[in-house]
Every structure is written in structure tokens, then in C-alpha cells.
Write a structure and sequence with these properties.
Order of helices and strands: HEHHEEEEHHEEEHHHHHEE
Strand order of the largest sheet: 1-6-7-5
CATH topology of the largest domain: N-terminal domain of MutM-like DNA repair proteins
Structural class: alpha+beta
CATH class of the largest domain: Alpha Beta
Largest sheet: 4 strands, antiparallel
Strand content: 15-25%
Distance between the termini: 55 Å
Number of domains: 2
Helix content: 25-40%
Shape: globular
Number of strands: 10
CATH architecture of the largest domain: Alpha-Beta Barrel
Number of helices: 10
Radius of gyration: 22 Å
DNA sequence: TTGGCGTCCTGGAGGC
DNA sequence: TGCCTCCAGGACGCCA
């Protein structure tokens, strides 16, 4: 599942390749991708514009276009953004002419030469002949075009602090968690608090911090917050260093698998021995999501009584 | 205001 | 072999 490390890996690969390139054509093949905005409107809004950079915010990937316009994309669960260089396939030019039409008609030979085209949802052609393919098996991913102030408002309503830019401190975490009864696992996955953490890195961060996923978020003391900040940053940086994790569908911009799944400390390791204390790693469901933890060394905190507010003196 | 749950969506695994 | 059911999960809407 693309979380912060996966999206950042794609961003770092795309940035040097597409910065300065001009979008010569855009095709939205699945109306769900841009819903509720009609595909043609999105295509018109970005065609002809130069790409000034590639940014990331939480799990969102942003093509920064000239004139203050932005194409904001979210990969959700099975989305991939693939960069197909112009010289990858000498025969591609002829095939590209027919790719969209062949796909529309369900041409049987199309998927032999382009298996990823089966789930192609949007396609952006660049002026050097390269293409960006947004593919997505489960069709949860989407794209939206936003201008400057709209972009700020869009993220302000959805995303909290960025964990890797120094904004996440123990004090900030303590403030975010205060009074919250939600389990730590759910708390970490709430993008309005901390942006970019999903199911995988929430498990890994809590293991590193030695905190039980069912502990109420508001039960943390300062020392727990310090450990959790360290756990979050450590887990995300490990993901980045390994090119992200590929449990199912994730591929980077070059179509390569990540290696982080080989480095998981608890996630998907049910029944295996904990590398820290030797206890058997367990799987439970928290908030409808599979959650892996070590019952031996991840401490379950008790809910702290809410501090009484001082009565206003009259 | 907060937390929990259902929904969207598809491919793969497992059961019969 | 073929059909059916269940499961996976990010974000969002709805309800208690």
C-alpha cells in the first residue's frame, strides 16, 4: 500500500525526469479517477502546461504546473504512477497511437505487450515522448486539479503535521493525543493528525516505540510520545531507505518492487518470533485493519483520567 | 466532538 | 473445473 515512503520514493524518481517537461496530451480513461469533475475538464486544465516540479504532502503526489496550477494525485491502495521513457520500446510509437482505442475495444493482444495497461486509469504524454501512467487495480486512486489557494485549503482540511520535516515533536504529539480515547493504531492512521502513516508504518512505529496498538492515544505521557516520534521517524526512514514496501501491487515510478517488506519488524509476521523479546507476534483487528504487534514487549497503557478544568473564578 | 462502522472496488485464495 | 464467498485496505460519509 503506498504510504509516505512509497509516495516519496516515486516523487524522488519522477522529479529529475519530468521537471521542465511540457504536457502535450492528457487522457483520463476512467471517470471515477477525476469524479466529480468530468475527465475532459481535467484534460483541458493541464494540457499544454509545463511541469515545474513534483511535490509530496502526506500520501498525495503533486505535479506542480506553471501558472500556479497543480495536479494532485492519491494512489490509495493499489495505485501506481509509472514513468515510461520515450526510448523504452522502439515499436511503442505505433502502438501508442492505438493504445487507448485498443484498450477501449478490449483488444486481446494489448495486454500481452502492455500488461499494466489493463488497469490504466489516466495517461499524461510529455514533450520528450515519455509518458506518465496512472494504473490502479481497485480504482480507489484519484486525481484533482487545484490552483494555489485551493491547494492550501484542500490539504488544510485533510492533513496534519508532516512527520519527516521536523514538525513532529513529542510536545506536538502530546498535544494531538490529549483527551483522545481512540486506540493508538487508529490515532496514527488519522491523516488529520499526522500525515502519511498507513497500516504498515503504524504497526512498525508502535513496535519500535514499544507501545500496544490498543492503548488509548490520550494515555501517553511525554516519554511515550518521545519514543513514538522516534518510532515513526525510524519506521518511515527505513521504508524510504528500502524503496518502500511491495506486499501486493506497489511499484515505484520505474516499475520496480520495494524491499521494505523484507525488513518488517512485526507487520505480516504473525506467528513468528519477536526479534526483541522472543514472544510470538500476534495479529488482531483494530478499526477494521489487520494489526500486528508483540504482546511481550509492546506495553498497553491505561487510560488516564481527564484533567478537571479549573473553574472560572467569578 | 469523537469513535466506530459501512461503503467503494477488484483480484486472489479457499471452500464446496 | 467452476462457482461462490470472503478478505485485503485508504478515505470519506453517516450515525450514535
Amino acid at each position: 500500500m503506498p504510504e509516505l515512503p512509497e509516495v516519496e520514493t516515486i516523487r524522488r524518481q519522477l522529479e529529475p525526469e519530468v521537471r521542465g517537461r511540457r504536457i502535450t496530451a492528457a487522457r483520463v480513461l476512467d471517470e471515477r479517477w477525476s469524479r466529480p469533475v468530468p475527465p475532459a475538464q481535467v484534460e483541458r486544465a493541464i494540457t499544454g502546461l509545463r511541469i515545474e516540479g513534483v511535490r509530496r504532502r502526506g500520501k498525495y503526489l503533486i505535479l506542480v504546473l506553471e501558472g500556479g496550477r497543480n495536479l494532485v494525485m492519491h494512489l490509495r491502495m493499489t495505485g501506481n504512477l509509472l514513468l515510461r521513457p520515450a526510448d523504452v520500446d522502439p515499436a511503442h510509437e505505433d502502438e501508442a497511437l492505438d493504445l487507448i482505442e485498443a484498450r477501449r475495444l478490449g483488444h486481446p493482444r494489448l495486454y500481452e505487450s502492455h500488461p499494466e495497461a489493463r488497469h490504466l486509469r489516466a495517461l499524461i504524454e510529455l514533450d520528450d515522448g515519455s509518458e506518465l501512467w496512472f494504473t490502479d487495480v481497485r480504482r480507489f486512486g484519484h486525481g484533482v486539479v487545484l490552483d494555489g489557494e485551493e491547494l492550501d485549503a484542500y490539504f488544510a482540511a485533510r492533513l496534519g503535521v508532516e512527520p519527516l520535516d521536523g514538525g513532529l515533536t513529542a510536545d506536538e504529539l502530546l498535544r494531538l493525543a490529549e483527551g483522545r480515547a481512540a486506540p493508538l493504531k487508529s490515532f496514527l492512521m488519522d491523516q488529520r493528525g499526522i500525515a502519511g502513516i498507513g497500516n504498515i508504518y503504524a504497526d512498525e512505529a508502535l513496535f519500535r516505540a514499544e507501545l500496544h496498538p490498543l492503548s488509548p492515544a490520550g494515555s501517553m505521557r511525554r516519554e511515550h510520545c518521545e519514543a513514538l516520534v522516534e518510532g515513526i521517524v525510524g519506521a518511515l526512514e527505513a521504508g524510504l531507505a528500502n524503496g518502500g514496501s511491495s506486499i501486493d501491487d506497489y511499484r515505484d515510478a520505474r516499475g520496480e518492487r520495494g524491499r521494505m517488506q523484507e525488513e518488517f519488524l512485526v507487520h505480516t509476521r504473525e506467528g513468528q518470533e519477536c526479534g526483541r523479546c522472543g514472544e510470538t507476534i500476534r495479529r488482531i483487528v483494530v478499526g477494521g485493519r489487520s494489526t500486528y504487534f508483540c504482546p511481550g514487549c509492546q506495553v498497553r497503557l491505561r487510560r488516564r483520567p481527564r484533567r478537571r478544568r479549573a473553574r472560572a473564578r467569578t
